[in-house]
Amino acid sequence: MASLNRKARWVTVLAIVTFPMACDTLRDPLAVDPASRIPAALLETPGNAQILSDGAVGDFECAFNSYTAQGGTIGEEFIYAQQTASRTPYDRRNTTKDDSDYAINSCTGLGVYTPLHIARQSNENLLALLKTWSDAEVAAGAGSPNRTNLMAIAAAYAGYAYVLLGEGFCTMAVSSVNIDKSLTYGGEIQRDSVFKLAIARFSEAITAAGASNNTSIETMAYLGRARAKLNLGDYPGAKADADQVPPGYLREVSASDAATRRQNRIAAENRETSRSLSVGEPYRSMGDARVPVTATTLVSATGVLHYYQTKYLTVATPLPLATYEEAQLIIAEADIRAGSLVTALPILQASRTRGGQGVFTGVTEADYLAELIDQRRRELFAESHHLGDVLRYDIALTPAAGTPYHFGGTYASQICLPLPAAERLNNPLIGG
C-alpha cells in the first residue's frame, strides 16, 4: 500500500514529464538512478531533435493504443471477460476518481490519463525546445532533420493527445513542465476548453507543415482540427477542415511485436488467442465488412462468450488514426445539421456500400442523423472514436444501466472518465 500511495502522490508530476525528464524533476534523495537513465540535459540538444521527435511520437502511439482499448471497453465495442477486479469498472461503467488503472498505469498497463499527458507533454516539450533552436543547429543533427517539419509533427501529435483527453474525460487539468523544468499547474477545465487547446495545436501544425511541405502531417492536422471542431459543435468549421482531406488519405499508428509498448493493444486483448476482451454485443452480428467478427464457443470464467475481431490480425497490425472515410462522415454530419440532406446522401450511401449494406431509405433529418451515427459506429470500429461518440450523441449503450453484470452487480451509467483522485489531491489548483 505504501508503494501505491507514493505512486499516487507523484501522478500529477508524472503525467506532465517525459521519461528522460523524470530523473531531474522527481529527484528523491533516497533513490539511486539506474545507469540506463540519462539526464534530460544530455538528451535535449539540437543534435538529438530527430530522436526526441521519434520518442514523442512513440509516446503518443502507445497512449493511443491504450485509450482505444479502454475507450472501446467503456463504449460497448468490447466486454472485459476475465477476472482482474481492477479492470471491471470501465466495462461495468462505474468508474470513480479513486480507480487507479486508468489514472496512473502506464500505457502498457492500459493506463489512459498519465500516458496521454506524457504524450502531450513530450510533444509540447519538444515543440518548445525547437522554438529555441535554429534551423542550422537542428539540421546538423543525426538525419539532418528540418526544424519546421519537426515542429509540425510535434504540434499535430500534441493536438491529438488533447482530442483524446477531451473526448474521454469528464473534466481535465493541463499542467506543464517548462524548459527550465519548473512546473506550471493547470486548474480543472471543461471538455470544450480541451478541444480549444487541441485546435490551437492543430493550427500551429498546419502552418508548420505547410511551410515544410509535409502534406501528410498537414492533412492529419486538418482532420484532427475537424474532429475537435465537431466536438465543439462547429459544424461549418469542421466541414471546411475535413474538405482538405483527399481521397485515400490514411495516417496510421504504427505497431510491432518487438516490444509490448509497440503492440496493437486491441489485438493483444482480443483476437483468436487473446481473450481478455470479447467483442461487445452490438457488434457481434452486424454482418458488415468493416466490423469483421468471429464467434466461438469458448466461455470465460465469468461466463462471457469469446467473440474476436479480425480487423487487426496481429499485434503488429497498425491502427488508423486519421482517414478519408472519417473526414467524409464529418462532412456528411455538417451537411445534415445544415439541412442539406441531398449532399449528405452520397456520403452515407458510399459508407454503406463499403460495409456491404443496401440502399439507404431515410427521409427525415432525424433518419439521416441516426444513419450517420450508425455509420460512424461501423466505419470507425476500434479506432478510438466510439467513447467520444457515446458522449457527444448520448448513445444508449448495450447492456443498459441496471442490467446484471457478469462479474457481479449491475451495469451503471458513468461513461466519461473522472478526473483522477491523484490529480485532485496533488494539484494545488484543484480541490480533492
Topology, element by element:
Layout (H helix, E strand, L loop, with lengths): L1 H8 L1 H4 L4 H7 L14 H4 L5 H26 L3 E3 L7 H5 L8 H4 L8 H20 L2 H5 L7 H22 L2 E3 L2 E2 L5 E2 L3 E3 H21 L3 H17 L3 H8 L7 E4 L11 H5 E2 L2 E2 L1 E3 L13 E7 L5 E5 L9 E5 H14 L3 H14 L10 H15 L6 H8 L27 H6 L6
Antiparallel strand pairs: 1-9, 2-5, 3-4, 6-12, 7-8, 10-11
Could you explain how this protein is built, in words?
This protein is mainly alpha-helical and 432 residues long. The chain contains 19 helices and twelve strands. The two termini are 20 Å apart. The strands form six sheets. Strands 1-9 form a two-stranded antiparallel sheet. The N terminus is likely disordered. It is globular and about 60 Å long. The chain has a domain of 276 residues: Alpha Horseshoe (Serine Threonine Protein Phosphatase 5, Tetratricopeptide repeat).
Essential attributes:
Serine Threonine Protein Phosphatase 5, Tetratricopeptide repeat; two-stranded antiparallel sheet; disordered N terminus
Which descriptor suits the 3D outline? Answer: globular
Mean pLDDT: 92
Q: How far from one another are the termini? A: 20 Å
| CATH class (first level) name of the domain at 2-26 and 39-257 and 320-324 and 385-397 and 413-426 | Mainly Alpha
Model regions low in confidence, pLDDT < 50 over at least 5 residues: 1-36
Instruction: Give the count of helical stretches.
Output: 19
Strand content: 5-15%
Number of strands: 12
The largest beta-sheet arranges its strands as 1-9
Query: SS-based structural class?
Result: mainly alpha
The CATH architecture category of the domain at 2-26 and 39-257 and 320-324 and 385-397 and 413-426 equals Alpha Horseshoe
- As a percent range, the share of helical residues equals 40-55%
